[in-house]
Amino acid sequence: MNRSIAIALLATTAALTTAASAQTLVTHRIPAALATEAASEAVASCAKGGYTETAVVVDADGATIAAVRGDGAGIHTLDSAHDKAYSAVTFKSDTMALADRGKADGPITALGKLPHVLFFPGGVVIKLDNETIGAIGAAGAPGGNLDDGCAKAGLDKIRDRLK
Q1: Which region, left, alpha or beta, applies to residue 62 given φ > 0 means left and ψ of -120 to 50 means alpha?
Q2: Which are the contacts of 52, defined by CB distance < 8 A and separation ≥ 6?
């Protein structure tokens, strides 16, 4: 047998053995009740300011857990809120910070062309200690900074019950 092939086979066997004996991964999930409460609070917070808002909460994989479309919120806000949450969770960063990095000359500009990626304020990461377990996105207010504030109000409503 060729020495290179033998080394490659040994390396593959070692990698498979290590992978097979590894511990399972521990992941945390946001309960649907808390996700719904956070989304509802984000919408209510914006309504107090006179804005019609939609809020979406996603899990660590970017899958929707809860969505609340406020009274009078435009149909496009469903997609915007989702994409802000999706972007926040997949980049593990609030979209307020991503918005600067995603500008025309920013280091991640090209990634903004991927499906569901939206570098616009209003997506806020949900963390349990240092683990990103989801995100909340808000859309519909007349400005991303307002969306961001509403998303943060939703997170603040549930933050102390995330364990």
Answers
A1: left
A2: 46, 70, 71, 72, 73, 74, 77, 140
Q: How many CB atoms lie within 10 A of CB 37?
A: 18
Choose among 150, 85, 153, 91: nearest CA to 123: 85
Q: Domains (ranges, CATH) in the chain?
A: 25-161 (3.30.450.150)
Length of the chain (residues): 163
What does the alpha-carbon distance between residue 54 and residue 126 come to, in Å, rounded to a whole number? 17
Global pTM reads: 0.85
pLDDT tens-digit profile of 50-103? 999 999 999 999 999 999 999 999 999 999 999 999 999 999 999 999 998 888
Contact 154, 138 (CB under 8 A): yes
Distance CA 112, CA 104 (A): 10
